């Protein structure tokens, strides 16, 4: 099947012959270079799902391959070197699962799976297995076994010596004789996609298993590019930071549809379960205009598990010593030839009311329950039409505040301080795509999403209730101009938001914001060494009028293993000052909105606009005969307008439009290598310079570390043991002045350097390696901020402040859990 697919994709106009040999994985071409370029042929093959030389097929095209054809992905697009068979028994001769496929080749050279072939080790005839409907088999290997006996009715049985027990084994029947063919290739848990014009870092499901990853906010613990911090000391909300900017400047999408945004952004990271995630794609700087105009620091796209290729059942249970329990259940089912469906469920319980590391009388984490679920459907007719649709639901009910706070008797009184959330979010989505059969490069797609978000909450004596309805539609068409060296995408989109916020009892902020526009994007790829993507979109905002979003991404790979990238572009967004700054609600600070009419448009403030420019260099190499890579990247973000959040007066929090400059500079270096077999190491260092002109003068961004060091060590053995260790060293942070407070409620002007360590060990069991037990610890240094809340003894007084959180809120934590799946 691979042979037919590859040869068909290669036979473009100007190609006289194309023959792929499964025994050596080589494609033999005869073509007229005046009529077709070699790079064009390679790109056509990659577009149907097969990695070729230094071109990596997209994840979407690879996912469409038959199970029999799902080869191990190439690591970085390079043709893997022929490996000598190690003589050390420890490298290959140990218990693990050998995977392979049995196929038959006819006179025309076509391959098809052999179903029901019998396989067993010559040393152990009683333990056998059969190839499934796709010809795929799995067989447990024992030490000293390397001779595989394969038989099938009507064919001559044979005993095959397996040369490399860690590679996929391909057994081909031709003329009733069975023989082995080696298939090479590996894929790391996280990698940089070398062929995308924008620098795209991909975190695979394997990477997410390195930590508990109960939800999306915890999925970046082993990543150096993204920080996840607690937004304040009492609400439990998490916020991501990238390039030194708050997460509100990073566009969060789920399968390229809008993720939790607007009012849902503070607690949105908690609503996406880690076990739902297939991969996470992190793109720094500006992205494609096809994804909208809001990306300012970058884009994080989350790919959920697909109904057509995920496990039929996946179960995860997690518990930690702080009283948190998570239960996850994924179910998927194929319904006939064209339909498939899945249900993804996540339930989080937290009932430990007395968890309080700083002994200030306040719960470190609100207690309660969060439930979320997804039901999605997929239809494929095999003729180019694909339809996906589904619904998502979230219910989050939590209570925080003082340890002895009782909602029934203390809510709305000064008896004890408490806070609570009652959140419900319902979302529907659909994606309709059609690939023209006569031209696989031409396609049209429609993306649709709609949601309703409702939040009822209180913070001591303050009430905050909010509601948001969102509707989104995006129409895309893409094609080539002559050859694949010239591609283009055009489309139109509309985004509708209806906000209704009540602050205290008398301040009602309402707005309807509709942004509609069109975009065009051109990609120039004259060779495999160079790509240029130029995009432009024009939008009309019903509140602020017309605005233009230009973007440019460049990639240049002068020699194998070296890649240069550059990007530049504009982003724009509208701030939601209450939802994005929960400390405003939880503290005694006086809220000031400095605008002529706070009820006009969006709090009377102008939209935020910035320009982002970045460069990056990635170098792949070999050290001690093993793959390694190094990277350096620099990004500069400059705001032409920003809604400044000013904490410089300890008694106030002010919001106003920027008058002056606000910018961020981010420099990051990273080195990855394998010092020993099965052992991956990642080292990173990041330097940030983020400054804003406040009304009191230019200052660095508060509560942000200028320096950060990162180390991740991962060991994965075929016996099923996995170990992971992560070290983060965080430099000092500037703390806004508290000199106007009484002495007992003052803080130093700068925090201390601290280090946190996380570690996890897991063991996989079972014939199919489908049962895993894991045990881990977070913040093993037990370092936490001793005074996360100012004036905790006077929560209804003038100096109560939960916003000065610069370090970990909780100390050492241990957890354990189990995973189980059925293919």
Automatic annotation (TrEMBL):
InterPro entries: Beta-barrel_TonB, Beta-barrel_TonB_sf, Plug_dom, Plug_dom_sf, TonB-dep_rcpt-like
Family annotation (Pfam families): CarbopepD_reg_2, Plug, TonB_dep_Rec_b-barrel
Domain TonB-dependent receptor plug: 194-298
Recorded topology in the membrane: Multi-pass membrane protein
This protein's name: TonB-dependent receptor plug domain-containing protein
Cellular location(s): Cell outer membrane
Chief location bin: membrane
Gene3D superfamilies: TonB-dependent receptor, beta-barrel domain, TonB-dependent receptor, plug domain
Organism: Sphingobacterium ginsenosidimutans
Residues in TonB-dependent receptor-like beta-barrel domain copies: 376-780
Domain of life: Bacteria
Family: Belongs to the TonB-dependent receptor family.
Keywords in alphabetical order: Cell outer membrane, Membrane, Receptor, Signal, TonB box, Transmembrane, Transmembrane beta strand, Transport
């Amino acid at each position: 099947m691979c042979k037919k697919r590859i040869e068909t994709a290669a036979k473009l106009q100007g190609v006289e012959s194309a023959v792929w040999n499964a025994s050596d994985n080589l494609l033999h071409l005869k073509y007229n270079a005046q009529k077709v370029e070699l790079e064009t042929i390679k790109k056509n093959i990659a577009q149907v799902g097969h990695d070729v030389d230094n071109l990596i097929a997209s994840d979407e095209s690879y996912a469409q391959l038959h199970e029999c054809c799902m080869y191990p992905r190439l690591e970085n697009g390079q043709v893997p070197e022929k490996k000598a068979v190690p003589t050390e028994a420890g490298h290959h001769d140990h218990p693990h699962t050998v995977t392979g496929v049995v196929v038959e080749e006819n006179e025309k050279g076509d391959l098809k799976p052999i179903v029901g072939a019998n396989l067993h080790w010559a040393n152990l005839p009683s333990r056998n297995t059969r190839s499934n409907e796709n010809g795929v088999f799995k067989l447990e290997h024992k030490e000293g076994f390397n001779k595989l006996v394969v038989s099938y009715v009507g064919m001559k049985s044979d005993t095959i010596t397996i040369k490399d027990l860690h590679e996929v084994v391909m057994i081909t029947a031709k003329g009733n004789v069975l023989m082995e063919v080696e298939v090479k290739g590996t894929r790391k848990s996280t990698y940089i996609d070398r062929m995308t014009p924008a620098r795209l870092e991909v975190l695979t499901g394997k990477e997410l298993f390195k930590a508990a990853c109960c939800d999306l906010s915890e999925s970046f613990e082993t990543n150096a590019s993204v920080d996840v911090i607690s937004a304040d000391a009492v609400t439990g909300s998490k916020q991501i930071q990238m390039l030194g900017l708050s997460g509100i400047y990073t566009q969060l999408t789920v399968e390229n549809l809008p993720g939790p945004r607007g009012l849902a952004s503070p607690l949105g990271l908690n609503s996406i379960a880690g076990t739902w995630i297939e991969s996470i794609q992190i793109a720094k700087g500006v992205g494609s205009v096809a994804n909208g105009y809001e990306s300012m620091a970058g884009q994080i796209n989350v790919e959920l598990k697909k109904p057509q290729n995920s496990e039929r059942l996946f179960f995860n249970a997690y518990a930690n010593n702080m009283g948190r329990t998570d239960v996850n259940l994924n179910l998927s089912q194929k319904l006939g030839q064209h339909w498939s469906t899945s249900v993804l469920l996540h339930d989080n319980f937290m009932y430990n009311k007395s968890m309080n590391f700083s002994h200030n009388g306040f719960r470190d984490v609100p207690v309660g329950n969060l439930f979320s679920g997804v039901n999605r459907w997929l239809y494929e007719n095999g003729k180019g039409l694909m339809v996906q649709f589904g619904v998502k639901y979230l219910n989050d009910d939590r209570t925080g505040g003082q340890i002895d706070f009782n909602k029934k008797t203390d809510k709305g009184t000064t008896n004890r301080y408490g806070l609570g959330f009652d959140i419900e979010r319902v979302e529907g989505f659909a994606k309709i795509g059609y690939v023209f059969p006569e031209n696989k490069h031409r396609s049209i797609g429609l993306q649709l999403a709609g949601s309703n978000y409702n939040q009822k909450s209180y913070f001591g004596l303050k009430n905050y209730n909010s509601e948001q309805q969102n509707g989104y539609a995006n129409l895309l068409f893409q094609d080539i101009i002559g050859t694949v060296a010239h591609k283009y995408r055009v489309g139109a989109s509309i985004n509708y938001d209806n906000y209704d916020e009540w602050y205290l009892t008398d301040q009602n902020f309402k707005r309807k914001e509709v942004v509609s526009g069109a975009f065009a994007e051109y990609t120039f790829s004259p060779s495999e060494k160079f790509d240029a993507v130029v995009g432009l979109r024009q939008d009309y905002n019903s509140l602020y009028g017309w605005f233009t979003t230009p973007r440019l991404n460049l990639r240049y790979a002068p020699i194998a293993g070296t890649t240069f990238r550059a990007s530049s572009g504009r982003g724009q967004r509208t701030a939601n000052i209450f939802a994005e700054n929960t400390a405003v609600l939880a503290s005694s600070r006086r809220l000031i909105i400095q605008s002529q009419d706070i009820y006009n448009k969006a709090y009377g403030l102008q939209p935020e606009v910035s320009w982002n420019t970045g460069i990056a260099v990635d170098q792949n190499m070999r050290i001690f005969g093993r793959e390694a890579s190094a990277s350096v990247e620099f990004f500069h973000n400059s705001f032409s307008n920003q809604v400044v959040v000013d904490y410089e007066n300890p008694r106030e929090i002010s919001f106003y439009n920027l008058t002056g400059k606000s910018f961020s500079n981010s420099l990051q270096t990273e080195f990855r290598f394998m010092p020993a077999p099965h052992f991956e190491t990642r080292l990173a260092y990041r330097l940030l310079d983020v400054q804003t002109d406040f009304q009191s003068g230019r200052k660095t961004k508060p509560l942000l570390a200028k320096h950060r060091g990162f180390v991740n060590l991962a060991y994965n053995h075929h016996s099923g043991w996995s170990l992971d260790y992560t070290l983060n060293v965080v430099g000092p942070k500037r703390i806004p002045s508290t000199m106007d407070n009484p002495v007992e409620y003052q803080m130093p002007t700068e925090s201390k350097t601290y280090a946190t360590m996380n570690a996890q060990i897991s063991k996989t069991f079972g014939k199919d390696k489908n049962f895993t037990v894991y045990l881990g610890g977070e913040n093993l240094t037990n370092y936490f901020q001793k005074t996360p809340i100012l004036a905790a003894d006077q929560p209804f007084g003038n100096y109560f402040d939960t916003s000065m959180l610069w370090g970990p809120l909780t100390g050492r934590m241990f957890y354990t859990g189990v995973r189980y799946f059925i293919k």
